Each structure stands twice: as C-alpha cells, then as structure tokens.
Amino acid sequence: MTTTLIDLADDLIQRGGVLLRLEGSPVRLGPIATVPLDLLGVRFGSAVDAVAMTVGPSGPVLAVDRTGEAVLVDANETVPEAAPPPSAGALLLDVARRSLGLATAPPDRPVADLVDTVWLDRALRCTLDAPLGEPPGWLALARLHPCGDARTPASCELLHYRRSCSPTWAALRTQVLDGATAWTPVSPSLAAWFDPGSFARHAFAVLPEPSAALADLHDLLRPVDAERIARTVGLSAHW
Q1: Does position 118 have pLDDT exceeding 70, yes or no?
Q2: Which segments of 33-150 are extended strands (E)?
C-alpha cells in the first residue's frame, strides 16, 4: 500500500492540484484555489480510497488512504520516499483524513486555552478599533470574555467562568453543532464535519497566538489593564 501512495504523491508532483485515487486510478480534482481551505467540509464517497495534496505552495506532497496510512513525498528528492507527516502539516493531515471520513489525532491543548485565545483576540480587536490614545478599560475588556456575563467581573470571577465554561472538546463541538455555543470561531456546519481533534486544531489555527496578542495588548492598554488580562489567562505581562 505504501508504494501506491508514493506513486499517487509522485503523480501529483508532476500534475499539481489535488489527486484522488478513484477505483484504483488517479483522478485530478480541480480547480482548487487554496488547499486545504477549499476542502473543508468535503467528504468523498467510498469509491475514493486515497487523496493526495501539496503541503504549502511548493512543499512536499501528503498522501493518505482509507486505512489511515500517510506518506510525505518531497518534490525535490530524485527518488520519492515515504516519511511521517510533520507536525506543521497537522491541519493538512486533518483535512485529508476528514475528507475520507477518518478520525484524527486527539487535541493536545485544553478547551480553557481556546477560551483564553478567543478573549485575547476580542480584546485586541476592541483595542485596535478604539481611538488612538484611548484604549478600552477593564469594564469593556471583561465584558468581551466568552464565558462572562453583562456585569463587570473581577479577574478572579473570570477565572471561575473560564473553568465552568470549559467542557471537553467533544462536548464543546456538540454545543457548537447544536447552536448552544456561539463564541468559538468554528461554524456549526464545519463542527459537524470535524471530529474533536480537528475541531480543536482548526479553532486555534484561525486565531492569533495568545502570546503575540498579549504582547500587543501590553503595548496598547493601560498597564493595570494589561496586567489584569495577563493574570486572568495565566501569562506574564512583563517582558
């Protein structure tokens, strides 16, 4: 099976786009403008037993089959060789596996991290939208917390909210799917297509890194408010 996956990947290197193995023969899928974004939500029928796509604009090719076997083929190598997909290609591997209806690796970060990341993203957007030299204060920032309420909670209260609104990834995905939770960056339709692992990785991928957002807030907010946010999410506001 590995040899046929390598052949499929090698064929994609020559032809470009996305290749499917349909009833044993390679079939080019196109036009695909952006991989893997254009394949989000796509589910191939049982006649397709493997898919190959490029990792980045000119990177290696990832090929996956319905048994879950995956190979990575470097276009610059004279003789393609199988290699395990790199961590940098985790999102691409997720898309390939979900397009075939396969489960993905479990999440490697807690739901609480996503709560923090969403709040930092909201706080940064609010700060950038504010008039120059007039950053939002704690009143406005605290109300942006995805697990808060209409009041102006203290940092300790937000920590409590953060814990209480952080279910398992499977539970959070179900809440998004049912429309009970709207604060994540994943739509209900994509939540139905993802499994818990791919749901988590996609949610983080479309948001800024927490440390980068917090660094920006440290530069833009009043020191006391930047420190309160850092204290709430457990990151240091001192560099």
Answers
A1: yes
A2: 48-54, 61-65, 70-73
